[in-house]
Design brief:
The protein is an alpha+beta fold and 118 residues long. It has 2 domains: 63 residues, no CATH class; 43 residues, no CATH class. The protein is built from 3 helices and 4 strands; from the N terminus they run αββααββ. The strands form 2 sheets. It has a two-stranded antiparallel ribbon. A hairpin with a 2-residue loop joins strand 1 and strand 2. The chain is elongated and about 65 Å long. The protein starts with 40 loop residues before the first helix and ends in a 6-residue tail after the last strand.
């Protein structure tokens, strides 16, 4: 998808990894775009919201932040058998549990999610 530098300042730019523009989905055919329509500076200032929230019906509404940070999420995805399908100790396949309890039949590794009934 060819994208020219002006695309970022156009009102038709979709900010999508799949479609460049609402008018020209695959981007302009040349180094210039006949459909370019710049966003007015006043409109751009109004549409900007600070990070961490936005305005809804004139009221500031903060975005909910995840309880764990990205590094912790990645570590959990690389380690937990729910995502890997393997025991973190012996690396053998482990069966999925319905109640959040995990047990390896080979090395007796166990993991239970807090606040789940046995």
């Amino acid at each position: 998808m060819p994208k020219i530098p002006e695309c970022d300042r156009c009102q038709y730019f979709l900010h999508s990894p799949y479609i460049v523009c609402a008018v020209n989905p695959f981007g302009p055919a040349s180094l210039t775009c006949e459909d370019f329509s710049a966003i007015a500076q006043a409109d751009a200032e109004i549409s900007r919201h600070p990070l961490g929230g936005g305005y809804y019906l004139g009221d500031w509404v903060p975005h909910p932040f995840p309880a764990i940070v990205t590094d912790t999420q990645v570590a959990l995805l690389d380690w937990h058998p729910q995502f890997t399908g393997h025991c973190p100790e012996c690396k053998r396949p482990i069966a999925e549990s319905d109640k959040g309890h995990w047990k390896c039949n080979h090395c007796d590794w166990k993991y239970a999610v807090a606040n789940t009934p046995d």
